[in-house]
Structures are given as structure tokens and as C-alpha cells.
User: Fold this.
Amino acid sequence: MGSGYVTLEQVARHAGVSLATASRVLNGSTRQVGEELRRRVTASAHELGYLANASAQTLARNTSTLVGLVVHDIADPYFSSIASGVTRSAEEQGLIVVLGTTGRAPRRETQLLATLRSHRARAVVLAGSRTVDDETGGGLAEEITMFTRQGGRVACVSQEGLPADTVVPDNRNGAAALARHLVDLGHRRFAILAGPTDLRTARDRLDGFHSALSAGGIALDPHNVVHGAFTRDGGYESTRRLLATGTDATCLFAVNDVMATGAMAALRDAGLRVPHDLSVAGFDDIPTLRDLTPGLTTVRLPLEWMGEKAARLALEEDPPAEARTVSVAGEVVVRDSTAPPAGA
Amino acid sequence: MGSGYVTLEQVARHAGVSLATASRVLNGSTRQVGEELRRRVTASAHELGYLANASAQTLARNTSTLVGLVVHDIADPYFSSIASGVTRSAEEQGLIVVLGTTGRAPRRETQLLATLRSHRARAVVLAGSRTVDDETGGGLAEEITMFTRQGGRVACVSQEGLPADTVVPDNRNGAAALARHLVDLGHRRFAILAGPTDLRTARDRLDGFHSALSAGGIALDPHNVVHGAFTRDGGYESTRRLLATGTDATCLFAVNDVMATGAMAALRDAGLRVPHDLSVAGFDDIPTLRDLTPGLTTVRLPLEWMGEKAARLALEEDPPAEARTVSVAGEVVVRDSTAPPAGA
DNA sequence: CGGCGGTTGGAAAACTCTTTCCCTGTGATC
DNA sequence: GATCACAGGGAAAGAGTTTTCCAACCGCCG
Assistant:
């Protein structure tokens, strides 16, 4: 009632038992405590309004109830969908999630992991897709190793090649399936908003799309592949640059939905109609963007599920020694932003 | 090197100094340490790969570097925008944010606050808008009091009446300004998707809109006010119910953008054109939804800024004793989803 | 009735820091 | 040269739990 804290010792004294007994009652240890004492302790704890000091527990147990979640940008609906899945898994198990944002700075990822390690976090989910250049990670792999060596677990979403469990979308095949669909529609000349050159996810989608075209005997004009930021504004900007060059493409593939959104805006601003003048397709099937008009043809990824799955992998009871990889297939979702080309 | 942890004691021994000195060097206390020793300690720490144990520090200092953030649903772009602002503020100050989601359960809010308290969190930002019925809070106000009494600070976004700093949008005036604009366009018969009946934010927006209409001598048919969930699907569903009753409205106001999104989808599915057959307006100006077509007329709220501001209030150096309230004005943003009614 | 496995309770060590208190040495002041 | 203030260093006392280890006790078996 005063302004101080109620400690376990006070509870123990109030109940007339030892510290050990009080601890055993209030934090379900393996040891049994007799009916009578158990009752007295819980009554005292309730009466005094006891709330355990989490840091003392973490210190004594050498493990906390924290789960880390590292994303590039929580305002990006791609990441907030994943975050939603991760928090669901974590909260289901009574754990609390700490959210770190990197702003796409690889060093920050390593830094956050160290912080999480210093907090004895149980696990961490790394959701930022990584750059191709492994060395820019600033010792990410090394930091992951330290983290796991100290008893923590790590799971990644959409980042291969790290010493950790991984949930990874099948970007190549998804993009390839999309390409085949678009070719079936009659398209032959494609433009691609390919995102950053060094982003693994972006590159895989480009590659998958490209090789499906090649397999169909269709060439891709290098002038029709433009790189830019992996964001809505990046898509807008890239599209403007593309249009400035006077592209002959009949279909535009943006390697993610948020870029596709920017592209549709740029096309609209340029007076072009989708899909009449140009078909547009994206990748991810971001829930928030499903209400765009025309509806965006895209490749659906179960983002929330992926976050949930990653968290589950990292929080499993007795994990196998080997790092596992869960591959997630994408499903082509056809909506109104794509149509046969005007000439067809 | 081994699999154990490097403790401060090991660093001290390695550097040939006392624990106290090592602590002072590595954690910038008020006390000075001589040049030579300081150098030796930092060198040892670096060489051994020392990483402070955060829970031990929290226990000793009785305060942590954690900042809580409580939202209803992180996948909702309204909350992820706010979250983005909060994390920015927090990370600027070297703090880490723990994210809790309530799924709109008031009790969960209280529960999360207690957890945060047990972690000695510095501050917490409560971003879920609250229900009208104060008593369903499950002791929220009480829990806030305990939290602050223990040295933590609390700030709310969009929740008035709590004993904490508050950043609150001027929902009434924003909605009123929007109403006046729509009346000026020529509308006289309105329908409103009013959200949940017990949600303060929803009610204020409804009231503001309603009173501006009254002031203009315009009545609101109760049949044209439909309540439902504060989500995209809630908006869709409410709109379907509205259409089923055969409304005579020429303009539809949804009390937030995500509901408006659902409304536009429902209208499209019903074969109605926006704004030709019916004008639609929302509230919030969610960034992700700015690319809807037709562009949604709405009231802009600086969501990221609000999150940032709330965090800043809660993290201020020496806060005044009184709880402060920062009111944020909304700005009417006119886009293509609204137009003069067909008859005009 | 002595010994024995199995419970239940408590004392105390451990966990890793921070911070108070005390001691020493130094240069300045009278 | 004695005194003083002060700066820098260390020993040790916390901070609030968990958990190990030991003692006591109970009922049973031989």
C-alpha cells in the first residue's frame, strides 16, 4: 500500500513461511507444497498485491520470457502482417515480444540481436530479408551463433543461409508461375520493377520470372528492368523512369505489392489505364492492398502464418540440432489488373 | 570463447581492477576513473567480448530500458503507423520497445500493463482507443496508478480520461469539418457507418458529424446510422446491411478509413459507383490506403507523429506533475470519392 | 524397533550488477 | 609542515528471485 514494492520476502513473512516455500508456491516449481501452506501463501500474495520482479527472475533463472522480433519497418504492411503472426504465437505461450526496427540497416540487425542476448531473450524472429552481399551483415551470422550458444533460438523469415530455422517463400517458383500465367494471357513484352539489386528476395523473384520467360522462348529487354527502392514510392519512381524511356511492354511485374501500388499510381498519373493500356502484377498479396482497384493480380503469401510458423519453430519445446527450412508455396491470384494485351 | 557468459567480474579480474571500477568504466557513472585503468578495462571488455546482463542491471538499478507499446492489432495500419512513431522515439533514446496486442480485450490491457510493471519498464504507450464504459477496463486506471507510482510513465493515444499524458485527435471538430464540406458539396441525406457503439473514438466522430449537420439544419435518419466492427470487414458488412434496407442517402461517412475501405468494396460488389451513385468519406487518412481508387476523401491524422509525440511525452526528462493533453487537429483531405450528389 | 525411501520445509548460496562507504594519496592552503 | 578538500580506487552491501542442499518427519518393511 505504501509506495514501495511488495517482495516475495514480505509475502513469505506475512504467510509465516520461508522464502523458498513462497517461491515454490507462486512460480510452479517441480516441488510440491502442502495444502495448508500453499493456501496461506497465495492468500498473502493476493492480499499484499504481490507482483514478481521479472528481472530478478530472469537473473536467477538465466532465461526470460522475451521474444525478439526484428523487422525493417513496422509501418510496412508486409512486416506488420508477419508481426501479427509472431505476436500471436508468442502471446499464446505467455511470452512477450520486443520489437526492433532496422530501417534496413544491416548493422542494426546485429546490434538488436546483441541487445536481445543481453536480455536473455528466449528466441528471436528475424524478418527482414537480407542483402545478397553476406559480408555487409556486420557479423550477423556470428551474433546468431553466440545467441544460440547461450540457449536462445533464432528463426528467420525469408532469409536463407543463416544458421537458424527458416521460413522462406518459394519466390522463384511463385514468380515463374505468375510469369506463365501472364504469358498465357498473351503477353510477350514485359517490364519489371526489380527492386534493389542486392536484395535476395527481389533477385529471386526476378530470376524466377525471367527464367520462366526464357523457358517460353521470350526475351526480356534489359531496358525494361528497372531497379529502385522496395517501397511504394520506389515503385512510383521506378515506373516514372520506365515510362520516360518509352517502354514497349504490355505488362508490368513489380516484385512486391507495395511497389506495384506505387506503379499503379504512377500509371494513373500518367493517364494510362490498368489493365487496358498496361497490365500490372505484384507479389505478396498484402491484405491491406486487396481493396485496390483494379484488384491486383499477385502471388499470395500467407504472411501471418509465416510469422506464426517462424515463432513456433523458435519456441518449440525440444528442437532438433539441425536448422530446419520450411518452404512456403505462393499461389497466383488473378484479379483485374491483368488482361490480355490490347492487340490480342 | 567457452560456452559460458563473460561477466563483469571476469573483465575486472582480467584488467586487474575491482568490480566497482569496471562497472564505472563500462556504464558511465558519475564517478571518474583514471585514464590508465579506464583504458585497461575497455580493452579487457572488448577482448573478452563482454556484454552486460540486462536483467542484472535492471535489478540493481531498479529501472530498465524497456518501453511498452499496447495496441489492439498490429496488422491494422492505423496501429502500425502509430507503432512506427513510437519505435522511432524509443530507439532514438536507446530504448527498446515491447509490443503487446490486446485483440480489443480491455482486460488484456490491464494484464499487459502489469507485466510491463514487473519488468520495470520506463514507460508505456497505450494506443488502443477505449470503450465508453469505464468499468470494463478491469482496473486499468488503477493499474496505471500503480505503474506511475513505481516510477514508470504512461501516455495514451486517443484515450481521454485516464490519469496519464494523452495525445488525442480532435475527433469531433474533424468530423464536423468533414460534414460541413460534404454539405457544401450539396449533400443532404447521409448514411453513417458508426462503428461499435461503445467505442469512444467512434462515438465522438459520429457526434461531431451529427452536430455539424444539425447546426446546418439537416436531420439524420436513425435508419441510416449502422453500427458494426471497427474493421475493414465490419465496414463491408455494415454497408451490406445498409444497402439491404434501401437507403436514400447520397453520401456515406465511415468513422474510419478501414471501414470506408470495406464500404467501397461492398458498394462495388453491389454495382454502385463511387462517387457517382454514392459519395464516400472516411477518417484517419491511413497512408497505405491513399492509393485506393477513387481516392478516399477523409480527415488526415498525423498518426506516426502522434505515436512519436506520445512516446516523447512519456520519456521526457523531468515531467511535470500534471498529466498533459495534446490535442491534434485533423485536416479534411478532399479526394475523388466524394462529389456533388447526382441530382445536383 | 531400526532402517529406509519419500515427502515437505527451510537456510543459504547463487545469479550479475550498482552504489554506498571508506581508505589512500595528492596538491593546495594557511 | 599540518590541514583540508578532493579525486580515484576497492570492499562489501544490497537488489529479488531460484535452487541446491540438508534436516525433519512420515509411514513401511523386515
